[in-house]
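Why do we bother with a discrete structure alphabet at all? Because it lets us treat a fold like text: something you can write down, compare, and reason about line by line. To make this less abstract, here is a complete entry for Membrane protein involved in the export of O-antigen and teichoic acid. Read it the way you would read a sentence in a foreign language you are learning: slowly, and without expecting to understand everything at once.
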Amino acid sequence: MMKHSVFWQLALYGGLTLLQKGMGFILLPITTRYLSLAEYGTLELLVLTLTLASLFEISSGALPKMAAEQQSNGHKLLSSAVKLSASYGVLVAAVCWLLVISNPFDLYRLISWQQAALLALSVWLMMVLYPLQVWLRIKNKPEHYCLLVGSQTLVQSSVTLYGLSAGWGINAILIAGVVANLAAACLALALLHRDWQVAVDSKLVKDIVSYQSRLIGASLALFVLYGLDRMMISHWLGPQVLAQYGIMLKLTEVIAVCFAVFEMWWGPKRFQLAGTTAGRDSLVAVHQLVLVLLMAGLLLVSAIAAPVLRWLLPPDYLGGMTWLPAMLVVLGSRLSTSILDFGCYTQAKPVWLTRINGGYAIVAIPALLWAIPQWGVPGLLVVSAILYGSRLVVFGYLSQRLLPLDYQFNRLIALAVTSAAILLLQPLIFPLFTGLLVITWLLTAAAVLLRHRAALSFDTLTNLR
């Protein structure tokens, strides 16, 4: 049916993801009106802590692969995942609360124990919600997913706006997160009540933990590259600098959110395609198209950033504008890796994810400890560009060894180098013509890259279930 076409699913999931993930950016003019620069920096630290806790999620990352392998055992798989996440989530939430109230390195000095409790409750609710959201996408239930995400976003934004206008400050955002996650978890459990109300399968639990534990290790190592840096900024440079850096991250995350649209729809399906030659050809075609769109998106954000932010935000929040081009280059390397490392996920035990990310984390810690106190944010960006760029090369090479795919690497590399050069030089050379340049670059890159690539089969993608 047409409503289950690939285009309809992409549009639906895309709109929902942009609405949910982009809400923080949409609310920026209001948030910055009610919160001082120091308060906003403290909020960034809380959100970062929430992100760190979410990396310990124990089941949702394993579900797409295991669902493809356990076609006849779906109810037990979801039931095992949800109950495992709910039990394990209590432990993660407790550790999160203890972390904040113990205040290591004087990071959380402005946060009360009540705020820490709200944060911990949000963590537990997220743990319960994650496998349910993933299952709705795996089972192609876009109407239910739309209802779930739409309700969650509406509740969170409404409570946030009311709380800020009532003078609750940071508490408004924390309370909104708890209420929205609670409402979404209850709704998801109701929508999937037939799927999760069965006995837990201990063997499935062991398989989930075995697979997901390696993803947790890889994610924690990646957090050193994309989270610990902000904690160091807060510690050494203060919450005001963290706030300015966080604003620039919000802008770059516009690209990451659009990329998440693709991953949300594509993640469960790529495992189904990897088993056949025609499927792998479609994988290559989709990945190359997304890489080209990613490059164009980075250029577009660079072009519109200055006028948009000056229109939206108070002057105090604009101190990080000079960091944006380098931040976009780093983001491009990070998101490209998420495409080109697919072969590393096809193994029964994806050990290379943890090994490589762990190795880079070990290198990153002393590098950041040296760069941030001495050189500030510019030093951080140089280190990040080197680490993420080399990590992209390593993952791309290893993924090709594990699952060879026929990418047009010479053209991709040429496009990537040119895009990075334009990003870094754009503020100095052609600030007035970047918009036209973005459009020209998109059309030229797409034509050059895809001219000889006709393997993309939309019939194949549409028929995936």
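What the structure line is telling us, in plain words: The chain has 19 helices and no strands. Residues 238-465 form one domain.
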